[in-house]
Design goal:
Elements: H1 3-39, H2 49-95, H3 110-118, H4 141-147, H5 150-157, H6 159-170
Length: 171
């Protein structure tokens, strides 16, 4: 299909839609006028005070009746909406299958994830080593003294006398 043909068809569709919208608006206006004529007759204001008071009472009674009707309709609508929600839940339960949303992979550091969960007010730091206690190692001085000079130990153990010292040390 050529672009000119597409453009022509599109313009025809738009013109038909516009005419349908105009007809629908005119029909709604006629419906409104007909309803107003049926339910709201022309108002004729009386000249005396008593007649005016009687008209006001009559109008208040009509307003009360309309409010009651509106309240009843509102109650029916809310009741129907609750029933619809309950039925939807029952249908989902009967199916037994729940749709799992497709999750997207998100690359986020642990700090950024916690900050997103807790909000920007809280400062989150995932440095776990910062929260650990500082323990100082005690240096054993006895071992250093026992080691001493290595040449001296070798000379003491050399020869027959050295073997005797090793034997005595083991026993």
């Amino acid at each position: 299909m050529t672009s000119s043909r597409k453009h022509h068809l599109k313009s025809l569709m738009l013109s038909i839609a516009a005419s349908m919208l105009e007809a629908e608006a005119a029909e709604a206006e006629e419906e409104r006028n007909r309803y107003m004529e049926e339910n709201c007759p022309a108002l004729s204001l009386p000249e005396s005070i008593q007649e005016l008071q009687a008209l006001c009472k009559k109008l208040h009674q009509r307003i009360d009746a309309v409010d009651e009707e509106r309240y009843d309709i509102h109650a029916k609508v809310t009741k129907c909406n609750k029933e619809i929600d309950e039925l939807k839940i029952k249908v989902i339960d009967l199916k037994g299958k729940f749709k799992k949303p497709a999750l997207k992979k998100v690359r986020m550091s642990a700090d950024a994830m916690l900050q997103a969960l807790l909000g920007s007010k809280h400062k989150v730091n995932m440095d776990l080593r910062a929260n650990l206690k500082q323990v100082k190692k005690e240096v054993k001085e006895e071992e250093k003294e026992a080691i001493g000079d290595w040449r001296k130990n070798i000379e003491d153990k050399a020869g027959m006398g050295g073997r005797k010292k090793i034997f005595e040390a083991e026993a």
